[in-house]
Design goal:
Elements lengths: L1 H20 L29 E3 L2 E2 L3 E3 L4 E4 L2 E4 L4 E4 L4 E4 L6 E4 L4 E5 L6 E5 L12 E4 L11 E2 L13 E2 L9 E9 L4 E2 L3 E2 L3 E4 L6 E8 L6 E4 L2 E10 L6 E4 L3 E5 L2 E4 L12 E3 L16 E5 L2 E4 L4 H6 L7 E3 L4 E5 L2 E3 L5 E3 L7 H4 L2 E4 L2 E3 L5 E3 L6 H7 L7 E3 L3 H4 E3 L7 E4 L20
Parallel strand pairs: 1-4, 2-5, 3-6, 4-7, 5-8, 6-9, 7-10, 8-11, 9-14, 10-14, 11-17, 14-18, 17-19, 18-20, 19-21, 20-22, 20-23, 21-24, 22-25, 23-26, 24-27, 25-28, 26-29, 27-30, 28-31, 29-32, 30-33, 32-34
Antiparallel strand pairs: 12-13, 15-16, 35-36
Length: about 450
């Protein structure tokens, strides 16, 4: 009995030690990216479509795994209807008509895949490329900070009724459905007047909506675009987005937990492409000052820029900051990893450096790795005050310059990468580039 107890105790301590090593960044005893994600989606072929989705869906409708669906044009789910999607179902966005799915306010989407049988939205082209089709819009009635508490998604969509594109309201706990174990690939069509659509737009979506294990890959626009609302996002993945991985605006209240953004400097838009873009408004005069500004709490987030030659890519301007924080926005990063950016964080130049504003922007127990500078104000080259503030022991941040092979468990694996932190190999340092070529003794 004593031997069994001792063995159990040793196993428990080993598991506990493994988990402790993964305290920062995405966490899990196992690599939760396995089975349901796909990092090489262009190599996957799907069956020809057997059903067409078009126009308006005004009654409860179920999509089944035995069919493959073609999403043609702007498809609106309206009149409080529910669109249910079985695990393993494949929906192909039509390239010719730039198929786009819009869940209008009051309606729901129930897309609950399984870890071994995810729901897939992808391009119908044989050679798939970013921007092949539109993306997914979910419109709810949770608050935003616009006057009147309502707005519309005017992205060139063609509804039969203006109310089909309206979002926002008073119910912060509203329920727009479920997105779980879902992949969205090659979305982000370009419009003439409104730029690129996002892979997944969540506009005025409330906290009773379930959002777990959603992967957006190779999007020509933003991967995730949050417009107002009150949301909890868990185990989100953005892979090789052309624009921002996660964009927050119009008073969005969000907890982003155990989630990942993998950027590539070779597919990023020169117009702006960060892992996180956090803003409270486009124009301050359009925001109601009596309502909440954007507030994002990020816990166990991993933001990584994967580069063949990071120093060279930074020098030629291919790498931007990981996080941009606008005026009047609040942000907390706790136990997160920011690796390979130029610099890690940029604060808007309108943010005045005082205790009140800095108390709204916190980096706690965050691991800054391989970044060409850590936290700066836009337009300022001297960040000594910010380094002193966030470098104090009270925040318990860590600075390192380890390569990806030593920083992450398996970042280079093309099919089954593992971006959990290999914490036992951290070498603390405040500098990214060595001052000289001498080897350390």
């Amino acid at each position: 009995m004593r031997k069994i107890t001792f063995t159990t105790l040793v196993a428990f301590l080993l598991i506990g030690n493994c988990f402790a090593q993964q305290e920062k960044g995405i966490i899990g005893y196992d690599n939760w990216l396995d089975t349901w994600t796909e990092f090489q989606p262009s190599k996957i072929e799907y069956e020809e479509p057997t059903q067409i989705l078009s126009g308006r869906i005004t009654i409860d409708t179920k999509l089944t795994k035995r069919n493959t669906y073609l999403l043609v044009g702007d498809v609106f789910v309206t009149d409080n209807a529910t669109l249910s999607i079985e695990p393993g179902t494949v929906i192909l966005g039509d390239f010719k008509t730039k198929g786009t799915l819009i869940i209008s306010k009051g309606s729901k989407i129930l897309a609950e895949g399984k870890q071994t049988d995810p729901i897939i939205f992808t391009s119908n082209r044989s050679v798939k490329k970013p921007g092949d089709w539109g993306g997914i819009f979910v419109l709810g009635d949770a608050p935003l900070n616009a006057y009147g508490n309502e707005s519309s998604v005017n992205y060139g969509l063609k509804p039969s009724s203006f109310m089909d594109i309206v979002y926002g309201g008073e119910d912060s706990e509203s329920n727009s459905g479920i997105l779980k174990y879902v992949r969205i690939e090659f979305a982000g069509k370009r419009t003439k007047q409104h730029g690129n659509l996002s892979g997944l737009t969540l506009a005025g979506v409330g906290s009773d909506t379930t959002l777990y294990n959603v992967m957006v890959s190779y999007c020509e626009g933003n991967s995730f675009n949050l417009l107002g609302g009150n949301l909890i996002l868990v185990k989100m993945v953005s892979f090789r987005s052309n624009q921002n991985d996660y964009k927050f605006n119009y008073g969005a209240q969000c907890n982003l937990v155990n989630s990942l953004a993998v950027r590539s400097p070779y597919v990023s838009s020169p117009d702006g492409s960060r892992a996180l873009y956090i803003s409270s408004y486009d124009f301050k005069e359009d925001a109601d000052p009596t309502k909440e500004y954007t507030n994002v709490n990020a816990e166990n987030l991993t933001l990584v820029n994967v580069s063949n030659d990071l120093e060279s890519d930074i020098e030629v301007g291919l790498v931007q900051e990981a996080i941009y924080i606008g005026n009047d926005a609040s942000f907390v990063s706790d136990r997160s990893v920011i690796s390979g950016f130029n610099p890690a964080v940029v604060l808007d130049d309108k943010i005045k450096m005082n205790d009140t504003n800095l108390s709204k922007i916190e980096f706690v127990r965050t691991y800054f790795n391989n970044c060409n500078g850590n936290i700066f104000r836009k337009g300022y080259t001297n960040n000594d005050d910010l380094e002193s503030w966030y470098g104090s022991r009270a925040f318990n941040n860590v600075y390192s310059k380890g390569p990806d092979s030593e920083t992450f468990i398996g970042a280079s694996h093309k099919k089954y990468p593992d971006f959990r932190l290999r914490i036992n190999r951290i070498i603390a340092s405040n500098d990214y580039f060595d001052d000289d070529d001498d080897d350390d003794d």
